Amino acid sequence: MDYTTHSTCTTILVGKNASYDGSTIIARNEDAGVAVNPKKFVVVQPEDQPRNYQSKLSKFSIKLPDNPVRYTSVPDATPEKGIWGEAGVNAHNVAMSATETITTNPRILGADPLVKNGLGEEDLLTITLPYIKSAKAGVERVGSLLEKYGTYESNGIIFSDVNDIWYMETAGGHHWVAQRIPDDSYVIAPNQTGIQEIDFDDPDHFMYASDLKNFVEQHHLNLSDNFNFRKIFGSDTQLDHHYNTPRAWYGQRYFNPETVKDKSPMSHDLSFICHANRKITIEDIKFVLSSHYQDTPYDPFTPGNDSQKMPFRPIGFNRNQELSVIQLRPYVPSDYSAIQWLAFAANPSNTLVPFFTNVQDTPDCYRDTTKIVDSQNAYWENRLISLIAADHYHAVMDDIEAYQDQLMGYGHKRITHIDNKVEGLSGSKLTASLQAANEKTADHVVKATRKLLTTMLTKTSNGVAGSFDRKHY
């Protein structure tokens, strides 16, 4: 079985007192094992939710409850390898992002082996999000599933509501822990076990597998006096130093450089819970999740650098498939407080688009992605742009940055406009108005993206290898 198709994500979590507007914000790049893995953005209605769920890869199956609610999802374009729903918001304004693939050390895998036919990233959003009414309830549901069925991989799983963000990490086949992210804090999680000290006497901030302490004691897994989940369950390998920790280092360097000034990109002791030196914006999150070590010697796009020989894996790169930044706002009515900012394909060259989630359907240019290239579709437009940008970075980045700035400004303007337009509406009238507004937003963005693609093709086509200019002869 191939479980590596989606395995290399980067997560940012921002508590409500750390964000610019008091929202809880969760964000995660979905990165595939290949450059092209088409994605779509959909609404799943209760009548379309499976009652007897069967995974494609691990053959895990489960009978699901009979009371699902509507939710958004960003699944694969076609389901032959499973759903891979990844990120969404349900009708109760609970958000989920799954998963951040993480690492577990051999001692843990020996004591609690992974379960070949257990659950995994392919399944988690579908079998969880439609059934939970709070972020904490999401941890409780997944925790019970893990202890009963086991998992075939180690993952970080994110839940949020308007008040709380919970980050959950699995270890081995059946064990897990979850931490509530403090309101004044942020987290960057880069494919590596992150949670550190566990306070077993603080149920408001920590949850864990029922036998976690006994399991660790029985198998002699704790090598220190403190219960540090990362040190007990995680790994600290050469791959971590080159593939994982540099991403956390760069993000922390951006948000609070004073704390990492004496640390290297390969530092094994970077903090999990961090505090920025300012309030964090949507643009900040997008910058970090698009970054490739700008203004450091490790940027593959610096003239003279060989991108194939750079020592560290970038955050924004060709294998980004979609980025969902989910913002749950406390200062507007709950019926239109949830926004799923969405970007497709490689983050250095795309832009976030805000979609209200209390809708019955999504715009067709985001919903109807196929595996065949379609220049009218948002995923494929952005995939084509990313391909051109990779080979002509310095020639087209001015055009891309102008496009990004213009559309991020447009996105914020649209949110304010839509908030004002729907004020006082409720029920089906509100839902219909939000859906129509999403359609207008998507139409504007797709037209602007198509214009950028045309500009880039025109600018770069004349200088390709094999071109010939008669005036030189």
TrEMBL record:
Domain of life: Bacteria
Record keywords, A-Z: Dipeptidase, Hydrolase, Protease
Coiled coil: none
GO biological process, one term: proteolysis
Gene Ontology MF terms: cysteine-type exopeptidase activity; dipeptidase activity
Reaction(s) this enzyme catalyzes, per UniProt: an L-aminoacyl-L-amino acid + H2O = 2 an L-alpha-amino acid
EC number annotated for this UniProt entry: 3.4.-.-
Keyword Hydrolase part of the UniProt annotation: yes
Pfam families in UniProt: Peptidase_C69 (PF03577)
Family membership: Belongs to the peptidase C69 family.
Protein name: Dipeptidase
Source organism (scientific name): Lentilactobacillus hilgardii (strain ATCC 8290 / DSM 20176 / CCUG 30140 / JCM 1155 / KCTC 3500 / NBRC 15886 / NCIMB 8040 / NRRL B-1843 / 9)
Record lineage: Bacteria, Bacillati, Bacillota, Bacilli, Lactobacillales
